[in-house]
TrEMBL record:
Originating organism: Metarhizium acridum (strain CQMa 102)
Assigned keywords, A-Z: Signal
Name recorded for this polypeptide: TRI14-like protein
CDD domains: MALA
Lineage, broadest ranks: Eukaryota, Fungi, Dikarya, Ascomycota, Pezizomycotina
InterPro entries named among the record's database cross-references: Mala_s_1-like (IPR054550)
Pfam families in the record: Mala_s_1-like
Signal peptide: 1-19
Entry keyword annotation includes Oxidoreductase: no
Length: 345
């Protein structure tokens, strides 16, 4: 989200996925649909559709990439269409489960000054279209942390969700037990903490806005999260206005894309994929900043990598035919594959 953020996570081995998918035809594209306002997106290889969270409507759009149109939405009764809620992080867990974050929007709109309300992790069965679980991820910390958004998964089926204000990681087990896995302990909720999280097996990486933007590694095998701040060559930082992070499958866990809302997509590398240290290779600029488009995440679509843009400054008052969203109807997606490849080579 604006000033915060997430992630695309790969629930199977990165190398296996990279080897299995065919080459895609690249290029920028637009999706024409009112209400879309995509916050995070993930490509479904099995069904060849794109899922995007509709930020203000608290729904998940299902996009046909042959026509670049929304063919249906995944709704959450009582949450979708409720002005108190936003949709942010989404993640495929295996081929048939979609995990979504529906959270109280006030946390982001007030940058942590108001973190009240209940936040939910939703699990949808993509085969049946049915909601399989609705998990309260707020009660476990008695509401001390707000702004949940992006997810990662480990090899045992556990789900990890980052909270941005002031920074926490909540673990949800396969039996839906909610565990406060890592808490920053900070009592000032206006401090921006974790914004995105990704996994490669049981290795977790999270972006943290503290100290100028740091990269933090965790081991999912630990009973509680033990943070290790990854040193970046030349004392580089992740930057300001952090949002989502992703590990493109084509690089097999060695390249991390870090999105900042205004700056664009920065490219970091760990040559052995262990992330004991990292180097910054460069940045793919945000080409829509002058049009008030903010970068939120990069996602894989087969062998291509795309940037998502959100339009936080669009007027949404008064409510109109676009529901709780603004009146924008065309949403661009930028193919950054070649630019990233050039930096990695």
């Amino acid at each position: 989200m604006f000033g915060a953020a997430v992630t695309i996570l790969l629930s199977a081995g990165l190398g296996a996925i990279a080897a299995a998918v065919p080459a895609a035809v690249g290029g920028d594209f637009n999706v024409t649909s009112p209400q879309l306002y995509p916050e995070k997106c993930v490509f479904d290889q099995k069904r060849t559709v794109l899922y995007c969270s509709e930020l203000y409507e608290s729904k998940i759009a299902v996009i046909d990439l042959k026509t670049n149109t929304v063919v249906k939405t995944i709704d959450f009764p009582g949450l979708s269409g409720n002005a108190d809620y936003h949709a942010s992080g989404i993640l495929l867990q295996g081929p048939d489960r979609l995990i979504s974050s529906i959270n109280t929007g006030a946390a982001f709109e007030t940058t942590g000054r108001n973190i009240s309300g209940t936040n939910f992790l939703l699990i949808t069965d993509l085969e049946t279209g049915q909601e399989k679980a609705r998990v309260d991820v707020t009660a476990v910390t008695k509401g001390a942390y707000g702004g949940p958004q992006d997810f990662a998964v480990d090899t045992c089926g556990n789900i990890y969700e980052v909270f941005t204000y002031p920074g926490a990681i909540i673990k949800v087990t396969p039996s839906l037990k909610v565990i406060p896995w890592h808490l920053s302990g900070d009592t000032n909720a206006t401090k921006t903490g974790f914004t995105g999280i990704v996994s490669n097996g049981n290795l977790l990486l999270a972006s943290n806005q503290q100290k100028g933007g740091t990269l933090v590694r965790f081991n999912a095998g630990d009973a509680t999260g033990q943070p290790f701040e990854v040193p970046i060559a030349n004392n580089e930082k992740l930057g300001d206005g952090l949002d989502g992070i992703s590990l493109p499958a084509k690089y097999q866990g060695t390249v991390l894309l870090v999105t900042t809302s205004q700056g664009g997509t920065s490219v970091f590398r760990s040559k052995d994929g262990k992330w004991n240290s990292a180097e910054k290779l460069g940045t793919v600029p945000n080409p829509l900043l002058d049009k008030q488009g903010f970068s939120t995440i990069a996602f894989d679509r087969e062998d291509r990598i795309y940037s998502v843009f959100e339009w936080f400054l669009d007027s949404r008052q008064p409510p109109n035919l676009n529901g709780l969203s603004g009146n924008r109807t065309v949403f661009p997606f930028q193919d950054i594959t070649d630019a990233v490849d050039k930096l990695v080579q």
